Fold NAD-dependent protein deacetylase.
Amino acid sequence: MGTTTGRRGNDGKSNTRVGRFGHRPGGAVGDSVVIRGRPYGVWGGSSFSSSGTGKSSSPPPVLKNAEDLAAFIKERVSNVLVMVGAGISTPSGIPDFRSPGTGLYDNLQKYNLPYPEAIFDIDYFMTDPRPFYTLAQDLYPGINYSPNTTHHFLHLLHLQHKLQIIYTQNIDGLERLAGIPEDKVMEAHGTFTRASCTRCGRRHDGQRVKQAIVDGDVPVWCDEPKCKGKVKPDIVFFGENLPSEFWDYHHHYLPFTDLLLVMGTSLQVYPFAGIAEAVSTHTPRVLINRTPAGTIGSRPGDLHLTGDIINNINTLVEALGWQDKLRHIQQQQQHTNKTKENEE
Ligand SMILES: [Zn+2]
């Protein structure tokens, strides 16, 4: 395996891959960086008032609406760091964990949990894993829910060589189902695609565990001699650490990020929400969410696009002139879904 030479940004195709994520360090953090053939921070002529982002000391450009954002993305951006939460999956029919009344926590009465969050509490799981396994039957990627326009837009952002990485709080796996490459998605709260023993830590085949859970053949037991621990999909529970790669944003992404896009999250859960605060003050931050969230709005370069998320994405796609490209991706997805249905 070779080493990377400062390629921690998005070149669309030629990152040297080390480990699961495409931007693992080979060279030292201080390497000089050239992104898409030009030194970082030099953008040339532009209609925007500032001369650059990232390491530049100039103030961030002022983005007033979706049209400004679209022009900025087209002219000046090659590394969008995206943060997403439950709000991008509610249009797919997945209940938001926190919305009163319709939220997932409010609909868990049938599990007789002592408190709603217990379903993701590791100590509770060790005592009674049935509620989580039952929930997993519903949430397992590729069974009940499909990606929506927001996921397709993120895929398009990748195909246009604009996407640096997506940090997702979601465990529904819809980013992967939308076709976004694995090394472009940091699943901060874990994934159903892998599973491990809660006692000895041994990795178990994700597909086998999925099949057992879907068939109701639970608990899934570790088959390591003398272990007999319960096997759990690698979803991060309360009381568990986030994947170590989560912290890569400090050195591997943010120094090269030229736009932060936050979508469908209320930015209440830390350490995830901390990424938005760690972004350089010279980098514009844009929130696309039903309501204002976190500290976004407190800096001059911040923009809110509040209201219906799908409407906002469609407006942005139109301003970018990417409608045909988005439609093409959606048609491909429908074709993939139909092929899968026919196979089943
Ligand atoms: Zn074990």
Notes: Residues 2 and 233 are 32 Å apart (CA to CA). Confidence is low (pLDDT under 50) at residues 1-55.
